[in-house]
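Summary for the steering committee. The consortium agreed at its last meeting that each partner would contribute one worked example illustrating the joint modelling workflow. Our contribution is presented below. We chose a case with several input lines so that the handling of multiple components could be demonstrated. No manual editing was applied between input and output; the record is shown as generated.
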Amino acid sequence: MPHTLAQINAYDRQAFVAALGHLFEHSPWVADETFAHRPFRDAAHLHAELCATLARSSRALQLELIRAHPDLAGRLAQAGRLTAESSREQATAGLDRLASEEAEEIKRLNAEYLARFGFPFVICARLNAKDAILRAMRERVTHAPEAEHDTAIAEIGKIAWLRLLDTLKT
Amino acid sequence: MPHTLAQINAYDRQAFVAALGHLFEHSPWVADETFAHRPFRDAAHLHAELCATLARSSRALQLELIRAHPDLAGRLAQAGRLTAESSREQATAGLDRLASEEAEEIKRLNAEYLARFGFPFVICARLNAKDAILRAMRERVTHAPEAEHDTAIAEIGKIAWLRLLDTLKT
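What follows is the complete predicted structure of the assembly.
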């Protein structure tokens, strides 16, 4: 259900979290802790405050958020058990119709990435087509763990921005 | 002069603004208004709070910040009157050694952009080589004014991030 920014600025805490809790995967606490920063001038301001909430939180909590993300084209997708948002996003990138060798490579890279970092590969699928995602997986699996944590958080910020634009009536 | 994050978290307001005032072109007020949000967990948190300060500020003040930026490869550069940061950034992108037809096209697009939007074309030069900058100029000059304002603010955030990394001792 879309909301106007004026509505969001007027909601009580519960309605606010109900409207924005889905922006961060399985993590309504980001919206909840951002409630105190009302009113928001525009969508960009609201997004900046949400990202500041996330940046302010402990690395452990950030890690929990990263781990709340599904594998790309993974078992949850095959079982139809993604959140509605993740399902649409993965479809936009073409991840719901992979050739079998692509699906195999993604599966292998996902497993390698998870084994190396202890969290799944996170990328804003709506801003990257299938080929760009595969290139990013091959590249990022070689990075340092700290850098990948930061990259995952930055990608989560982009995902939240596009989900926010979907949520706001203009 | 580099600073550690621990130093930045311990500085008084004046020292804090002296250390970080240059992150936003000619606009130390962004650092000044972010002072209240100490302590900062890491560079990403500090950057997120700076960007939230900027997002929270009025469109008029944001416009003033955009207007504080020099033309790319423009008269200030030719006269050697850029800030130290802008000068290095433009050199990284190769804007200090343009072929004369490239210089002419940039000059023409700069003028067209400024006439259309009332503010200069802003891009994170360190993340874009000369050719990417020219492509972005040709494309962005066709956009809507509101969208270009938002893009300029987003680019200013990227510029500030790279300036912050230069400022922090690791």
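The mean pLDDT of chain B is 92. The longest helix of chain B spans residues 145-167.
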